[in-house]
Design brief:
This protein has about 375 residues and is an alpha+beta fold. The longest helix has 26 residues. The N terminus and C terminus are likely disordered. The strands form six sheets. Strands 1, 2, 4, 9, 12, 15, 16, 17, 19 and 24 form a ten-stranded mixed β-sheet that branches. Strands 18-26-25-20-23 form a five-stranded mixed β-sheet, with no helix packed on it. It has a four-stranded antiparallel β-sheet with strand order 7-8-22-21. It is about 20% helix and about 35% strand. It has two domains: about 160 residues, Immunoglobulin-like (Sandwich), CATH 2.60.40.420; about 140 residues, Immunoglobulin-like.
């Protein structure tokens, strides 16, 4: 009887010992993690087209809260292997901004299936939250900016986290600094290019921003261009992340809107893009609207400037970031014979002694020497 009790108690002790850790460990509370959307320089010219950090690891049941970190526009979108919707679409009222991008879809949880989209997040501060219910590795994108993608790794519930939120923040800041540093290097490397046209005029190439690898410069480069009447300027899009417009307008008036909402009897408004297609001719000679329409990466548009004047233009997509430019057109004049004209006030050298400052200097020196000799002769006579 005694041995039975001993065996029973021993077995009970072992069973409790084996179950003890599970009983002692409380259920792990779900966590909410913070991720940044983009980042920028103080003048909005340099943009990080990135989710920061690019990879975050969470557990099943956790939530990620994405927050806009730039005065810009982005989306947080999980395609789940589906097609990427186009940015714009035609309609009977003109070009429309795609409502599948502009408005939220799916959520508030995600199990790796379906289309989940934050909708358009604009300006610094707006946020979007999503709870992850199934372990896996999930890629998400910004539908406005090709190449802007990141990854969420979801571990089984109760797993050990590889990073704290403080470490996630540090990683985000390091990636942001790297992106903005790259954008600054791209900015400094941009140069104005030119070539002669067959009719004797000159064509100049202005870059519609530069960028790559999730970094971009939202500026026309160079911002100000001075040309002769009759010259042409080509605007070339080299940034793989961005669309732009080149839109000349009257600076005394209002900058044209890129998107104009049109209320509908039912449902969300139509988001009309009134200046998505080219408008006006290609000869800019007055303060009117001359518009390239939307220029995708790699596309270009050329305007000619037949009359002197100052012409102001803007990218309608990025007006709020300060993407403006100016073309100053001067009267076309032939260069003086004998070579290029010289800036006023610079001394002339090696162009003939008769007309340069060397002759009066030599004559003055000769007179000083002669006067000195006469003085010496007079002193010698007095000594004698």
């Amino acid at each position: 009887m005694g041995s039975f009790v001993v065996r029973f108690l021993l077995g009970l002790f072992v069973a409790l010992a084996l179950r003890g850790p599970a009983l002692a460990r409380p259920a792990q509370a779900a966590s909410t993690w913070q991720v940044l959307i983009g980042g920028e320089s103080t003048d909005h010219a340099l943009q990080a087209q990135a989710f920061l950090p690019s990879t975050i690891t969470v557990n099943e049941g956790d939530t990620i809260n994405w927050t806009m970190n730039a005065d810009f526009s982005h989306t947080v979108s999980f395609l789940s292997g589906g097609p990427r919707p186009p940015d714009v679409m035609p309609s009977d009222t003109g070009v429309l901004f795609n409502p599948a991008i502009a408005f939220p879809s799916g959520g508030p949880s995600y199990d790796g299936t379906g289309f989940v989209n934050s909708g358009l997040l604009q300006g610094k501060g707006p946020s979007f939250a999503l709870t992850f219910t199934k372990a896996g590795s999930y890629t998400y994108v910004c539908l406005l900016h090709p190449g802007m993608a990141a990854t969420v790794v979801v571990q089984p519930a109760g797993s050990t986290y590889p990073m704290t939120q403080a470490q996630v923040d540090a990683q985000a800041n390091a990636e942001l600094y790297a992106k903005l540093s790259q954008a600054e290097q791209d900015l400094e490397g941009a140069q104005l290019a030119s070539k002669a046209n067959s009719n004797g005029t000159t064509n100049y190439t202005v870059v519609n921003g530069v960028g790559g690898n999730q970094a971009t410069v939202v500026r026309f480069l160079p911002v100000d261009v001075t040309v002769k009447a009759g010259a042409s300027v080509t605007w070339l899009g080299t940034d793989p992340h961005e669309i732009h417009t080149v839109s000349f307008y009257d600076p005394a008036g209002k900058v044209p809107d890129f998107v104009v909402p049109q209320p509908q009897p039912n449902g969300p408004p139509k988001l009309v893009i009134p200046h998505g297609a080219p408008e006006g001719d290609r000869e800019v000679d007055s303060q009117e609207l001359y518009n390239s329409g939307i220029l995708a990466p790699g596309q270009s548009y050329t305007f000619t400037f037949p009359k002197p004047g100052v012409y102001t233009y803007v990218c309608l997509v990025h007006a709020s970031q300060g993407m403006f430019g100016k073309v100053t057109v001067q009267t076309a004049k032939a260069a003086p014979s004998g070579g290029a004209s010289r800036p006023a006030g610079l001394p002339r050298t090696g162009e003939g002694a008769q007309s340069g400052p060397l002759v009066p200097l030599v004559v003055g020196a000769f007179l000083l020497v002669l006067l000195g000799a006469l003085v010496l002769r007079r002193r010698a006579a007095q000594i004698r």
